[in-house]
Design brief:
heterotrimer, A alpha/beta, B alpha+beta, C mainly alpha, A: alpha/beta, 7-stranded mixed β-sheet, 4-stranded mixed β-sheet, 17 helices, about 15% strand, globular, C: mainly alpha, disordered C terminus
C-alpha cells in the first residue's frame, strides 16, 4: 500500500509539474487505435484538422493490430510508457480500472454540456462504479438485415416474424426465414435483454438463471424446434453464405456484416422486432462502445482531454460517420442532413435507442466460457434450458467467488 | 595455490560477519522504521478521524463547517493544513492551507490543476461504495501518502451524509521528526570482534581444520545472535511507546472535539456516532481494536499483534544468519578456492557458453522465478497493488490444483466427466503430446529417409513443397484446418458424404475434436522433424552401409544397426524439445478446438491462460504454470537418464 | 561403384507414390490459402453448394480453385500499407536473429561437446529447462526487461535478443548432438600441426557440421519470422513493424479480411522458401559424410 501511495503522490507531482509548465505550451499527444482502411483515414483526417487548428500541439497516431492493442496497453501503460490517448471498446474498461495506473478518470473535466452531447447509453458504457473514464466515440449494435426481394415489409414484432419466417422457410431446399448466430451468447443476449434479463444484477452478481433469461432461452428453443425457421449450427460463414445466396431472408447482425454482402443482393435494415412474448417490449441487443481513454501516465492530460473532446465533437463525428463508416456516439450528428440521409447510419441509430451497453465489468470474461458451453448444450438438447442456465450460473458464481476469496 | 585453513577461515569469518551484520542492520532498521511509521500513521489517522467526525457534525458544508475547521486547526499544532472537498460542483468547501487565501480562499470551485485532489475524493467515494456493495474490504477508504514536499503525510478520508459519500477531508501533517537512525556501532563491532576472537583462538588451534571450523562458527554465530537480541529489543522499544501515544492522541482528539462543541443548533447526525476509540482504524476504516471502548490500551491484543511481527523479524534475521554461516563454511572449508580454480581451469569452456547463458538468464530465468514466487500468492486482479507478503498463501494454490480429484461429477442423468479438473486436462495433455510427437517424428523421419534416397527424381521439389506448412503463418493455416472440419462447409464432411457417410459434428465430441487438433498439429510439425532428420542423416558416413552390406546385412538390419543409432544424437534433442513444445502448444488448441466441447480438449497451458486472463487469478495461473514446468522437468530428467542425451 | 548399384536396387516407384501422397496432403490446406488469396474475396469459406448436392457438386466444393482469379488482394496488401517496408524489417530482424542465434549456439554447443567441465550437464539441462515454462504468460515480464530495463523498445535489437534467445536452446542441443558425431581425431591431428582452438573450430569443425548449422539457421530464422505479439508490443513506431504485425491488421476485431491475410501469408512465405532452397544443398545426401572418415 505504501508503495502504491508513494507512486500516486509522485504522479501528482508529475502532473502538477506538467500542468504548470505546459498549460500554455500545449505539447505532443500520441494516440493508439486499431483502425485500418477507411476508419483509419477518417481518424487521420480529424487529427490533421486538430493539428491545424491547434498550433503548438502535435497529435500523432499509431495503428496497432486489434489482436495486440489490448495486451500492448496492459503491458506499456502501467509502466509509464505508451500513449496519451487510446481508443478501445468498453469491454476491457473494468479490468484496466481495477488493475490501476492505466486509465485516468475524467469526471473532473467533464461538464454537463459535454456529457449531454452523447447518447446516454454510450455514456453509461464509459461509466464504471459511478465514475466516468472516457468519452464515447462510436457504437456497434446488431439489427435486422433483410433481403428486399424476399421480405416486402420487415416484421414489427415476433408474431409477424414467426409467421413470415414460416412462410419463407423450406428446409428441404435449404431456405430459412431467419439466420443468425443464435448459439453465440453475444447474439442471444439481445433476447435476454428484451425479456428484461441480463448477465449481472447490480454490481458483479451474476444472474444467468433468472426467470427472464429462462424465458428468452425457451423462446429461442421454440423458434429452433417448433417453428423450425433457423438453420442448424449457425456459424458466421454459414449465415453469410445463406444470405448472399438468397437462402436466408433475414439476418440479425451488425455493421461488420454489411461488407460481406454480395453485390447482387438488395438489402435493407430495420429495427429488431418487438417481443410479443414479453408484452411487446423491444429486443434489446448488446452494444459495444468504443471510447477515447486518457492514459493515467500521460504528461499532458489537459490537452489529451481537449483532443478527446474534439474527436467526439460534431465536426469530427461527421467525418467519422461519413468517411469512416462508424456510428458516432455523438447525438447531434444524426441531425446532419448527410448523415440523416444515410440509411445505414439511420438504421443503427434507431436500433441503438433500445440497446443495452455490454457490461464493462472485468467479471464479464468469466461469463463467456460457461455461457458458450450452455448455449451449445441447450440448443443441441444436451441439457434443458433450466439445467443449462443453472450450471452456467454456478460456474460463473464460483469463478467470481474464487477471485474474492479472502486469505 | 591453496591457502592454509586458518587464513581461509579468517577470510570466511570476515565475509560472513560482514554479510550477517549488514543484513541484520538492514532488517532491524527497516523494522524500527516500520514501527515509527506505524505510530505516525496511526496518530495522523486518529486526528483525521476526529476531524471527519467534526466535519460530519458540522453538516459537511457551509459557514459552520469552515468555522469548525478553522477552530480545529487552531488547536491542532501537528497538522499543517486541512482541506475539505464537496464533490457536487467540484467545490473546495473549506481550507486552512496558506495557498488558499485571497482570491483562492474557500469556498470556491476547484481549478484545473487540482484534478488529483478531486480524483482522490472520487477514488475514496468509489472505494466506500464498492466495499459496501461487495461486503468486502478491498479498496482503501483512508489514503495515507507522503505529501508532495518534505517528510510529511497527506491523509484523506471520505465524508458521508445520509448514507452516501458527498466529499472528502484531507489533512497534511507538519514536518515529522526524521526517521530514527539505527546505531551502527554494534554492527561494526559484530564484524570486528569475532575476527579478533578467531585470530586469538587460531593461535592455539594451529591449522587443524575442524576445530578451526567450530571456532569460526562459534565466533560468527555468537555475534549474530547478540545482534538478533539487541535488534529485536530495539524494535520492541519502538513499539512500546506506540500504543500509549495513540491512546493519548485519541483522548486529545475527543477532548478537542468536545471543546469545539458548536452552539448545538443541530444535534450530531446519527450516521456517525463519534466513538473516539474507533478512530484508530486501518485503511478500510475498520477499528484496529487495540484500544478498549473507553480509549485505554488493550494490552492483550497489543501483545498478540506484537508477537506476530516479532516472529516475522526474527525469521528474516535468522535466515540472514544462516546465509552468513553457509558463506563462512563455504569459504572456510575451501569451496571458494575450488570454485575459483575450476573457473580458471575451464575458462575457455565457460567463455564459449557465457553469452548464450547470459541471454538465457536474463530473459528466461528472471520471469521464471517471478512466476514461481507469484504462485505462492493469491495475486489477482483485485490486489495487484498489494505487496506480495500480504497476499501470501503458501501452498494453497498447489493444494487446490493437485488436491482436487473430482474428475467424475454426479450430474442429473448420471455421472459426467468434469473436464475442468486438473487430472483430466493432464491426461489429455499427455495423450496429446505423445500422439503428436509420435506422428511428427515418424512421418518426418520416413519422409527424410525417402528424400535421402540417392538419384531420386524431383527431390528438391518435394523438399520445398513439404516444408511449406512450416513456412506459412500458422494463424491462417490452423484456421483453414478448423474450417475443413466445419459441419456443413468443411471439406472433410463433403468427402465423407461423397461416399455416403453421414456428416460428423467434429467439435461436439471430445475424441473427434481431439482428432481435428491432432491433424492440424501433425501437419504443422512434421516438416521440422523432416528437416532435422535430413540433417542428421548427413552425419552417417556412406561407407558404413557398404561395410554392412559386405557383412550380409539386409536393408532393415542396416537401418536398425546403423541409421537409427547414428540419428540418435540429433534426433533425441529434437524429440525432447518437441515434447516440451507440444506439451505447451497453445496456439493450435486455442485456434482449432478452443477447448470444445465444454473444455474437454483444453491442455494445461490453455487452462493456465484462462485462469490468468479470463478469471484474473494470476497467482493460481502461476501455480498452474509451475506445475506444468515441474512435470516437464521430471520428464526431462527421466529422458536424459534413459537416452544419456547430455553425454558425448 | 558397388554403392551406386545398391542404391539402384530400391524401387523408386513406391517412394514417389508415398511422396506424392504426402505432398498432396501437405499442399491441400496451402492450396486453400492460395485459392482465398487469388479469389479477390475476403471470406474464409468459398464453397458454394446447391441444395441436395450431388457427388460432383461436392467434388467441386472440395477442390481448392477460385471461381474467378484476381490479383486484387495482392495489390491491396502491398499498396494499402507500407508492407514492403515491414517485410524488409522482418528480413533484417530475422537475418540478425539467425546470425546471433547461430553464432552463440555454435560456440556454446562446441564447448558442451568438446570440453569436460563441471556444470556441463547442468548447463545443458538449463537450456532445455528454459523451454519448459509456458510462454503465454511471458509477455509482461519480457516487456519489463526489454523495454523498461534495457530500454530497447522500438528497436530491432530488442526483438533480435528475444528471438535469438528463444531459438538458442534447441540450436545448442541440435549442434551439440551433431558435433558429437564428428571424430575428435581430426582436431587432435590439427592440434599437433599447431592450429589454434579458434582455427580448429572455424576451419575443421564448422565445415563438417554444415547440415546442422543449416538446420539451426533455418530454425532461428523461423523463430522470428512469424512472431507477432512481441513485435506488435515492443514497437511504438509504425515503420518499425514487422510483416506479421502488418498482416494482423487484416483480421481480428469485428471484420476480417481473409483474402488480404492469405495473400500476405503467401508473400511472407516466399523468403522462407528461398532461404530453404539455398540451405537445402547442405541437406543433400553425401556431401560431407564421406570426408569425415577420410
Amino acid at each position: 500500500m505504501d508503495r502504491d501511495a508513494r507512486r500516486r503522490s509522485f504522479l501528482f507531482l508529475l502532473v502538477a509539474c506538467a500542468l504548470g509548465a505546459s498549460s500554455a505550451a500545449a505539447g505532443e499527444l500520441v494516440v493508439w487505435h486499431s483502425y485500418r482502411a477507411e476508419e483509419r483515414a477518417a481518424i487521420e483526417k480529424v487529427v490533421a484538422a486538430y493539428n491545424k487548428d491547434h498550433p503548438g500541439t502535435t497529435v500523432t497516431t499509431l495503428a496497432v493490430p486489434f489482436d495486440a492493442i489490448a495486451d500492448k496497453i496492459s503491458a506499456a501503460v502501467p509502466r509509464g510508457k505508451g500513449p496519451d490517448i487510446f481508443i478501445y471498446a468498453q469491454d476491457r474498461l473494468g479490468g484496466w480500472i481495477e488493475a490501476g495506473n492505466t486509465i485516468e478518470p475524467i469526471d473532473f473535466f467533464l461538464d454537463d454540456a459535454t456529457k449531454a452531447r452523447y447518447l446516454p447509453t454510450t455514456m453509461a458504457a464509459m461509466t464504471y462504479r459511478g465514475q466516468t473514464w472516457g468519452l464515447p466515440l462510436n457504437y456497434k449494435v446488431i439489427t435486422l438485415i433483410y433481403n428486399k426481394k424476399l421480405v416486402k415489409a420487415p416484421p414489427k414484432d415476433t408474431a409477424e416474424l414467426v409467421k413470415l419466417c414460416k412462410s419463407l422457410t423450406d428446409k428441404a431446399s435449404g431456405r430459412f426465414g431467419l439466420a443468425y448466430a443464435y448459439t453465440d451468447y453475444y447474439y442471444h443476449a439481445a433476447l435476454q435483454n428484451g425479456f428484461g434479463g441480463g448477465v449481472f444484477a447490480g454490481g458483479a452478481k451474476p444472474q444467468l438463471n433468472s426467470k427472464e433469461n429462462l424465458a428468452a432461452l425457451e423462446l429461442l428453443l421454440r423458434w429452433q424446434d417448433k417453428d423450425q425457421f433457423l438453420p442448424t449450427e449457425p456459424s458466421v460463414a454459414l449465415i453469410t453464405a445463406l444470405f448472399n445466396e438468397g437462402k436466408a431472408a433475414m439476418v440479425f447482425s451488425g455493421p461488420w456484416f454489411l461488407g460481406e454482402i454480395a453485390k447482387e443482393v438488395d438489402w435493407g435494415l430495420a429495427p429488431l422486432p418487438n417481443l410479443v412474448e414479453a408484452g411487446g417490449k423491444p429486443i434489446r441487443p448488446w452494444m459495444t462502445v468504443e471510447g477515447v481513454f486518457i492514459s493515467a501516465q500521460s504528461k499532458n492530460k489537459d490537452v489529451a482531454y481537449d483532443f478527446a473532446k474534439y474527436l467526439t465533437d460534431l465536426p469530427s463525428a461527421k467525418i467519422m460517420a461519413l468517411d469512416g463508416r462508424q456510428s458516432p456516439a455523438n447525438k447531434a450528428v444524426y441531425d446532419d442532413a448527410k448523415v440523416a440521409a444515410d440509411p445505414v447510419l439511420k438504421a443503427f441509430k434507431q436500433q441503438v435507442d433500445v440497446a443495452v451497453p455490454m457490461p464493462n465489468l472485468p467479471e464479464m470474461t468469466m461469463v463467456w466460457g460457461p455461457a458458450t458451453t450452455m448455449m451449445n448444450a441447450v440448443t443441441k438438447h444436451g441439457a434443458t434450458p433450466k439445467a443449462g442456465l443453472d450450471t452456467a450460473q454456478a460456474a460463473v458464481a464460483n469463478a467470481i467467488s474464487q477471485l474474492k476469496k479472502k486469505k | 595455490m591453496a591457502r592454509p585453513a586458518h587464513v581461509r577461515f579468517a577470510v570466511g569469518v570476515l565475509l560472513a560477519g560482514a554479510l550477517g551484520s549488514g543484513l541484520s542492520f538492514k532488517f532491524t532498521r527497516e523494522a524500527v522504521r516500520h514501527e515509527t511509521a506505524d505510530v505516525e500513521r496511526r496518530q495522523a489517522v486518529v486526528k483525521l478521524g476526529g476531524l471527519t467526525a467534526l466535519v460530519g457534525r458540522a453538516g459537511g458544508d457551509g459557514d459552520a463547517l469552515r468555522k469548525a475547521v478553522a477552530a480545529w486547526q487552531a488547536q491542532e499544532k501537528d497538522v499543517a493544513q486541512v482541506r475539505v472537498l464537496v464533490m457536487a460542483g467540484l467545490r473546495l468547501e473549506a481550507s486552512t492551507a496558506a495557498a488558499d487565501a485571497g482570491d483562492r480562499a474557500a469556498p470556491r470551485r476547484l481549478q484545473r490543476e487540482e484534478k488529483p485532489f478531486y480524483d482522490r475524493g472520487q477514488r475514496l467515494a468509489t472505494a466506500v461504495r464498492t466495499n459496501r456493495e461487495e461486503e468486502t474490504a478491498r479498496k482503501l477508504e483512508i489514503e495515507v501518502a507522503p505529501a508532495a514536499t518534505g517528510r510529511r503525510l497527506s491523509l484523506a478520508a471520505p465524508v458521508e451524509a445520509d448514507g452516501d459519500i458527498v466529499g472528502m477531508v484531507e489533512i497534511e501533517t507538519t514536518e515529522l521528526p526524521p526517521e530514527p537512525a539505527e546505531p551502527i556501532l554494534p554492527y561494526i563491532l559484530a564484524v570486528v570482534a569475532p575476527l579478533a576472537v578467531f585470530g586469538a583462538g587460531a593461535l592455539f588451534l594451529g591449522r587443524r581444520r575442524w576445530p578451526l571450523a567450530a571456532l569460526a562458527v562459534a565466533c560468527v554465530g555468537g555475534s549474530l545472535v547478540w545482534l538478533l537480541t539487541t535488534g529485536t529489543a530495539h524494535v520492541e522499544a519502538a513499539r512500546l511507546g506506540t500504543a500509549q501515544r495513540v491512546a493519548d492522541e485519541v483522548k486529545a482528539q475527543a477532548g478537542l472535539l468536545a471543546s469545539l462543541s458548536a452552539p448545538t443548533s443541530t444535534p450530531a447526525p446519527p450516521a456517525a456516532p463519534a466513538v473516539p476509540s474507533t478512530w484508530d482504524a486501518d485503511a478500510y476504516r475498520r477499528p484496529l481494536g487495540l484500544l478498549t471502548a473507553d480509549g485505554a490500551v488493550d494490552k492483550q491484543k497489543l501483545a498478540e499483534v506484537g508477537r506476530a511481527s516479532d516472529r516475522a523479524l526474527r525469521r528474516s534475521l535468522l535466515s540472514a544468519d544462516g546465509l552468513a554461516l553457509i558463506l563462512l563454511l563455504f569459504v572456510g572449508l575451501g569451496g571458494a578456492n575450488r570454485l575459483g580454480r575450476t573457473l580458471r581451469r575451464n575458462r575457455q569452456a565457460y567463455l564459449y557458453i557465457a553469452p548464450a547463458m547470459i541471454g538465457m538468464l536474463i530473459l528466461v530465468f528472471f520471469p521464471f522465478f517471478y512466476g514461481i514466487t507469484l504462485s505462492f500468492t493469491d495475486s489477482n486482479l483485485y490486489n495487484t497493488n498489494q505487496p506480495l507478503s500480504e497476499i501470501w498463501v503458501g501452498l494453497r494454490n498447489y493444494s487446490d490444483i493437485l488436491g482436487d480429484f473430482s474428475i467424475v461429477k454426479q450430474g442429473e442423468g448420471g455421472s459426467v466427466v468434469n473436464y475442468l479438473n486438473f487430472y483430466w486436462t493432464l491426461g489429455f495433455t499427455i495423450v496429446w503430446t505423445v500422439t503428436n510427437v509420435t506422428i511428427g517424428v515418424t512421418s518426418g523421419l520416413i519422409l527424410a529417409l525417402i528424400l535421402n534416397t540417392k538419384a531420386l527424381a524431383l527431390r528438391p521439389m518435394y523438399r520445398v513443397l513439404l516444408i511449406l506448412p512450416w513456412a506459412m503463418p500458422n494463424y491462417i493455416t490452423a484456421l483453414i484446418w478448423k474450417g475443413m472440419f466445419h459441419r456443413q462447409f468443411g471439406v472433410i464432411n463433403h468427402v465423407l458424404q461423397m461416399f455416403g457417410i453421414p456428416a460428423l459434428s467434429w467439435f461436439d465430441h471430445p475424441f473427434t475434436s481431439y482428432l481435428t487438433a491432432l491433424a492440424t498439429n501433425g501437419w504443422l510439425s512434421f516438416p521440422f522433424m523432416m528437416v532435422v532428420s535430413l540433417g542428421a542423416l548427413q552425419s552417417i558416413p556412406a561407407d558404413i552401409y557398404e561395410a554392412a552390406r559386405v557383412d550380409g546385412a539386409n536393408r532393415w538390419q542396416a537401418f536398425k544397426a546403423i541409421t537409427l543409432p547414428s540419428l540418435r544424437p540429433a534426433l533425441v534433442p529434437a524429440v525432447i524439445i518437441s515434447v516440451v513444445w507440444t506439451f505447451n502448444m497453445f496456439n493450435i488448441i486455442y485456434l482449432v478446438t478452443a477447448g470444445e466441447p465444454g473444455g474437454a480438449t483444453e491442455i494445461l497451458v490453455t487452462q493456465a491462460y484462462k485462469f490468468a486472463f479470463e478469471r484474473y487469478r494470476y497467482g493460481y495461473a502461476a501455480a498452474y504454470s509451475t506445475v506444468i514446468f515441474a512435470i516437464l522437468l521430471i520428464y526431462g530428467f527421466i529422458q536424459n537418464r534413459v537416452s544419456k542425451a547430455t553425454e558425448a | 561403384m558397388a554403392r551406386s548399384r545398391r542404391e539402384e536396387q530400391i524401387p523408386h516407384g513406391p517412394l514417389h507414390l508415398i511422396l506424392v501422397v504426402a505432398t498432396l496432403v501437405t499442399m491441400y490446406p496451402v492450396l486453400w490459402v492460395i485459392t482465398i488469396a487469388f479469389s479477390g474475396k475476403q471470406s474464409l469459406a468459398i464453397a458454394d453448394l446447391p441444395p441436395d448436392p450431388s457427388f460432383f457438386d461436392r467434388l467441386r466444393a472440395v477442390i481448392p480453385w477460385p471461381q474467378h482469379w484476381s490479383f486484387s488482394n495482392f495489390v491491396s496488401v502491398m499498396t494499402d500499407q507500407p508492407f514492403g517496408r515491414w517485410l524488409l524489417n522482418s528480413i533484417i530482424v530475422a537475418a540478425l536473429t539467425t546470425l546471433v542465434g547461430v553464432f552463440l549456439s555454435c560456440t556454446a554447443a562446441y564447448a558442451f561437446s568438446r570440453f569436460k567441465f563441471p556444470g556441463r550437464r547442468l548447463g545443458m539441462m538449463s537450456f532445455l529447462v528454459s523451454q519448459m515454462f509456458p510462454g503465454t504468460l511471458m509477455l509482461i515480464p519480457l516487456y519489463i526487461i526489454i523495454v523498461q530495463v534495457l530500454g530497447l523498445g522500438s528497436t530491432k535489437i530488442g526483438l533480435v535478443i528475444v528471438y535469438a534467445t528463444t531459438s538458442i536452446p534447441f540450436s545448442v542441443w541440435m549442434l551439440k548432438g551433431y558435433f558429437d558425431t564428428i571424430p575428435k581425431e581430426l582436431e587432435e591431428a590439427a592440434l599437433i600441426e599447431g592450429a589454434s582452438a579458434g582455427q580448429i573450430f572455424w576451419r575443421i569443425v564448422l565445415p563438417l557440421a554444415k547440415p546442422a548449422v543449416a538446420i539451426t539457421a533455418l530454425f532461428s530464422f523461423m523463430s522470428s519470422w512469424n512472431e507477432f505479439i512481441l513485435a506488435a508490443t515492443f514497437m511504438d513506431k509504425e515503420d518499425m513493424y514487422t510483416a506479421p504485425v502488418g498482416l494482423r491488421f487484416f483480421v481480428g476485431g469485428f471484420s476480417q479480411q481473409w483474402g488480404y491475410f492469405a495473400a500476405g501469408s503467401i508473400i511472407v512465405s516466399i523468403p522462407v522458401v528461398f532461404l530453404f532452397l539455398y540451405l537445402q544443398k547442405y541437406l543433400v545426401s553425401g556431401l560431407t559424410a564421406g570426408s569425415v572418415k577420410g
